[in-house]
């Protein structure tokens, strides 16, 4: 086992161990923090498919996070108020079932990513960054100005949605569910990196001309990657909303996009477990520093600056030493 | 007369007032190496871009394998069977040598939308890639990172990737550049055999290689083809000597 | 709708547009010359607004407040350039985004630390507080007219600076070919600091001018920054002319969209839902404009070929 692989395994085990210890010590708040790490890591794993593999610096992934959140919010809102979502041309009812909500969140955010990607990927580089940021902001303002689902105030869901065979109201069970989703998606994204699609996508990041010369279209590869990426982040959004039992336009905010990206960078770009390490570090910092000072984000900013300027491999990179991003 | 595989018809490209390509008619017939030579700034790069689809012509057309490909994009031309190597090595530098070759085989197979199955476990693709590496003599370096290859080895890898595409014709942009005497000799020998598989449009500065390899040579000056013929004809051509081969006649 | 109201809204759109231009011009210059994407540009806008509000509160002078805004933003820009930004020129866009995002966190929380979380207020100077009567009998706030006038004057000055002065020649040379200006004997690192400080000063001026019609608070810069990005995407990166045209387009679209779209939808549906739909679509109008430009000209109206 290489050093990096050991660190990955340790990182991965850290979450359930933390949750297990918290359960033994009867500290439900710690379990909730571990759940939050798992969900935010999932969002960042999604972004990492576009950013790490595809080299697509999307600063608008909050759009998909928010769409996933609102998919949950809207469906559960209609279910708890016993009003149909729509009656014409056919009846759609709300639901409190997580599997259905997840499916809707994935499909809705994938469609949004397809549309936003189709436009944004016509450009590259700094244009792409600015455009994804702008589309994210567009959805933010739309969520604020559309009053049907709470507008600026957002939507509260009174009871957490259900999953067959589990009691999601018990923190450790909901943690287990989120962690299982994270594990499955991490596995799939590791497979994706080594698949035919992954090879072509990573090659298109390094040298798009080469990819064209073998008859493949970088635009199409990137659009598919962006869509998958958006769908995963959307799923994370639905879980995040369920964790808080609340959705609001802040899930769409540009700060959210920036934070998802920070998780990846703190952990290390292009590393499978980087998002997990980054999200864990971020939540840990938030938890520790916010008790000391109200202005804890200053320290996060300073840390981020140091990582970008001097430790480009992120946390895993610093611990594991230099390593090629692929295997 | 043999039907040409690749043909440009009255191809023109203007950049403002500059006529970079001026009514160029060149062809590539099966089994031949057709070399394109010309002094710097003669418009060779522009012509390559027009043939490969990186630039659109101002007028005229490009035909390949019996079809007008003028409106096709670069990937579509590659899929139609036009394999190329780049003037400056253009490879995925963070990938291994084998991964680059597999990328070629993958492009050839067209089965890129596979998301969960490890591509390096695809025996057919890997075998095809390894065979291409074998042919150019890079099999021993299959596991090396492409970025760590020497300049000459990268040129060979370019050719290997083009081989995996099993193209109907090759367009090779200065494959000898920077190879050194021994490398050039090996590449010359390799291309000499390759022409039987698919004809080669060769853009090259190495005149020894050109005169040794080419069945036909076209000379490009100021965007125009001033002469096309065998090595002997080109050597004897007065216009070529005056415009290109130097002032010794003057 | 009355013509009077429409003209007033057009003026509002112009005022918004010239403010966006002050932001976008700095961003596009910095990108054009140094190849840097600066997310912290909104923080410099905020610095200008806070400096103006604090100075006005201490001295009561609006002119001094504007001067303070210019100096504070330019100084903040120069300091940031010297300490952080210049390490980023050779980095990829991802590093630039992250480092300047980190700067936003530092600036925002630092400002909250110093000034607290409550908004400050900057009063419009008494002489400009009232309306003026324009030809045609339109009453329009004098201060907003001043903003339009100042914005246009700065735009004209910037065009002259770029096209007529030595600095402008160096800036244009830098945009065309970064290695060239070294060969011309220009001290590149000084030029970069200067351009960055100039961009910062423009942002600070915008912040101070807008600060008098909105509240001055932490986080005020980023929404404007993102709109400035939309402006640049529409106008084309690196083009001052594009920034100007794009800024006016965005300013007018946003302002007029908010007024006209509800009326437009009222043609189809009942008044209350028309107002809702109109407001929602208006909130997205400029992004729809951006999407339209992207479809037809991905490099922006005045952008070069990629």
Automatic annotation (TrEMBL), chain A:
Presence of keyword Cell membrane: yes
Coiled-coil segments on the chain, per record: none
GO molecular function: branched-chain amino acid transmembrane transporter activity
Membrane-crossing residue ranges in chain numbering: 34-55, 62-80, 100-119, 126-149, 169-188, 223-240, 260-284, 296-320
Taxonomy, superkingdom: Bacteria
Record's bilayer topology term: Multi-pass membrane protein
Subcellular location: Cell membrane
Keyword Membrane attributed: yes
Gene Ontology cellular component annotations, sorted alphabetically: plasma membrane
Keywords tagged on the record: Cell membrane, Membrane, Transmembrane, Transmembrane helix
Annotated CDD domains: TM_PBP1_LivM_like
Major subcellular site: membrane
PANTHER family: ABC TRANSPORTER ATP-BINDING PROTEIN (PTHR30482:SF17), HIGH-AFFINITY BRANCHED-CHAIN AMINO ACID TRANSPORT SYSTEM PERMEASE (PTHR30482)
Protein name as it appears in the record: Branched-chain amino acid ABC transporter permease
Native source species: Aliishimia ponticola
From TrEMBL, chain B:
One Gene Ontology term of the molecular function aspect: ATP hydrolysis activity
Pfam families per record: ABC_tran, BCA_ABC_TP_C
Cross-referenced InterPro entries: AAA+_ATPase, ABC_AA/LPS_Transport, ABC_transporter-like_ATP-bd, ABC_transporter-like_CS, BCA_ABC_TP_C, P-loop_NTPase
Superkingdom of this protein's organism: Bacteria
UniProt KW keywords: ATP-binding, Nucleotide-binding, Transport
Matches recorded under CDD domains: ABC_Mj1267_LivG_branched
ABC transporter domain sequence ranges: 6-247
Protein name listed in UniProt: ABC transporter ATP-binding protein
Record organism: Aliishimia ponticola
TrEMBL record, chain C:
Bilayer topology: Multi-pass membrane protein
Keywords: Amino-acid transport, Cell membrane, Membrane, Transmembrane, Transmembrane helix, Transport
Annotated CDD domains: TM_PBP1_LivH_like
Localization of this protein: Cell membrane
InterPro entries, per the entry: ABC_transp_permease (IPR001851), BCAA_transport_permease (IPR052157)
Transmembrane spans: 14-37, 44-60, 66-85, 97-122, 142-162, 191-213, 225-252, 273-296
Molecular function, one GO term: transmembrane transporter activity
A GO term from the CC aspect: plasma membrane
Domain of life: Bacteria
Predominant place of localization: membrane
Cross-referenced Pfam families: BPD_transp_2
GO BP annotations listed: amino acid transport
Entry keyword annotation includes Lipoprotein: no
Protein family per UniProt: Belongs to the binding-protein-dependent transport system permease family. LivHM subfamily.
Protein name: Branched-chain amino acid ABC transporter permease
Organism of origin: Aliishimia ponticola
């Amino acid at each position: 086992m290489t050093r990096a692989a050991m660190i990955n395994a340790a990182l991965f085990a850290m979450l359930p161990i933390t949750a297990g210890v918290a359960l033994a010590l009867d500290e439900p708040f710690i379990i909730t923090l571990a759940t939050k790490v798992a969900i935010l890591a999932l969002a960042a794993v999604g972004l990492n498919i576009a950013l790490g593999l595809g080299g697509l610096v999307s600063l608008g992934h909050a759009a998909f996070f928010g769409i996933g959140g609102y998919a949950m919010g809207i469906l559960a809102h209609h279910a708890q108020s016993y009003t149909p979502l729509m009656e014409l041309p056919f009846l759609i009812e709300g639901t409190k079932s997580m599997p259905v909500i997840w499916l809707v969140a994935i499909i809705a955010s994938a469609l949004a990513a397809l549309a936003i990607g189709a436009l944004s990927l016509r450009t590259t580089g700094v244009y792409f960054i600015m455009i994804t940021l702008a589309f994210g902001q567009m959805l933010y303002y739309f969520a604020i100005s559309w009053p049907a689902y709470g507008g600026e105030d957002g939507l509260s869901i009174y009871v957490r949605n259900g999953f067959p065979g589990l009691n999601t109201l018990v923190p450790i069970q909901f943690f287990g569910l989120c962690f299982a989703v994270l594990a499955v998606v991490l596995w799939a994204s590791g497979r994706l990196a080594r698949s035919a699609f992954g090879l072509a996508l990573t090659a298109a990041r390094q040298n798009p001309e080469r990819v064209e010369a073998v008859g493949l279209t970088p635009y199409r590869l990137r659009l598919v990657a962006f869509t998958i990426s958006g769908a995963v982040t959307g799923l994370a959004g639905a879980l995040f909303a369920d964790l808080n039992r609340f959705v609001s336009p802040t899930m769409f905010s540009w700060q959210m996009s920036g934070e998802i990206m920070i998780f990846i960078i703190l952990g290390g770009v292009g590393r499978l477990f980087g998002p997990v390490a980054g999200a864990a570090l971020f939540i840990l910092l938030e938890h520790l520093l916010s008790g000391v000072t109200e202005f804890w984000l200053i320290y996060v900013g300073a840390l981020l600056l140091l990582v970008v300027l001097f430790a480009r491999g992120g946390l895993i990179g610093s611990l594991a030493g230099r390593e090629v991003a692929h295997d | 007369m043999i039907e040409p595989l690749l043909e440009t018809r009255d191809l023109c490209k203007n950049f403002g007032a500059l006529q970079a390509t001026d009514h160029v008619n060149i062809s590539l017939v099966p089994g031949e190496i057709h070399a394109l030579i010309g002094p710097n700034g003669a418009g060779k790069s522009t012509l390559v871009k027009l043939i490969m689809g990186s630039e659109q012509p101002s007028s005229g057309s490009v035909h390949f394998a019996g079809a007008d490909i003028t409106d096709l994009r670069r990937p579509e031309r590659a899929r139609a069977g036009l394999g190329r190597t780049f003037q400056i090595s253009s490879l995925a530098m963070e990938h291994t040598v084998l991964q680059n070759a597999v990328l070629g085989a993958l492009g050839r197979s067209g089965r890129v939308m596979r998301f969960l199955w490890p591509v390096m476990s695809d025996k057919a693709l890997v075998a095809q890639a390894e065979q291409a590496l074998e042919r150019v003599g890079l099999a021993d370096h299959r596991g090396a990172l492409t970025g760590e290859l020497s300049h000459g080895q990268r040129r060979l890898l370019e050719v290997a990737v083009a081989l995996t595409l099993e193209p109907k014709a090759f367009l090779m942009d200065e494959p000898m550049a920077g190879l050194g005497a021994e490398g050039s000799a090996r590449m010359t020998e390799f291309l000499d055999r390759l022409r039987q598989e698919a004809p080669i449009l060769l853009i090259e500065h190495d005149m020894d290689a050109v005169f040794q390899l080419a069945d036909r040579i076209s000379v490009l000056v100021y965007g125009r083809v001033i002469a096309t013929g065998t090595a002997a004809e080109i050597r004897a051509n007065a216009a070529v000597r005056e415009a290109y081969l130097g002032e010794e006649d003057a | 709708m009355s013509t009077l109201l429409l003209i007033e809204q057009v003026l509002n759109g112009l005022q918004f547009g010239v403010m966006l231009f002050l932001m976008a011009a700095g961003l596009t210059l910095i990108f054009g010359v140094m190849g840097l994407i600066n997310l912290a540009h909104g923080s410099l806008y905020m610095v200008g607004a806070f400096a103006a509000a604090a100075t006005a509160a201490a001295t009561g002078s609006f002119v001094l407040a504007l001067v303070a805004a210019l100096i504070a933003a330019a100084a903040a820009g120069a300091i940031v350039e010297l300490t952080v930004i210049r390490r980023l020129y050779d980095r990829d866009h991802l590093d630039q985004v992250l480092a300047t995002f980190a700067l936003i966190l530092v600036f925002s929380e630092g400002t909250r630390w110093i000034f607290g979380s409550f908004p400050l207020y900057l009063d419009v100077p008494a002489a400009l507080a009232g309306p003026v009567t324009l030809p045609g009998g339109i009453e329009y706030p004098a201060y907003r007219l001043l903003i339009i006038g100042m914005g246009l004057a700065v735009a004209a000055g910037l065009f002259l600076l770029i096209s007529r002065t030595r600095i402008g020649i160096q800036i244009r040379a830098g945009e065309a070919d970064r290695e060239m200006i070294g060969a011309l004997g220009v001290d590149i690192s000084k030029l970069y600091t200067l351009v960055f400080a100039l961009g910062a000063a423009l942002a600070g001026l915008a912040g101070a001018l807008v600060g008098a019609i909105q509240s001055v608070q932490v986080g005020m810069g980023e929404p404007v920054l993102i709109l400035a990005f939309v402006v640049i995407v529409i106008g084309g990166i690196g083009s001052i002319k594009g920034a100007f045209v794009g800024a006016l387009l965005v300013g007018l679209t946003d302002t007029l969209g908010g007024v006209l779209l509800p009326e437009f939808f009222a043609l189809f549906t009942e008044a209350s839902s028309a107002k809702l739909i109109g407001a929602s679509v208006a909130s997205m109008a400029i992004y729809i404009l951006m999407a339209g430009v992207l479809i037809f000209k991905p490099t922006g109206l005045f952008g070069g070929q990629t």
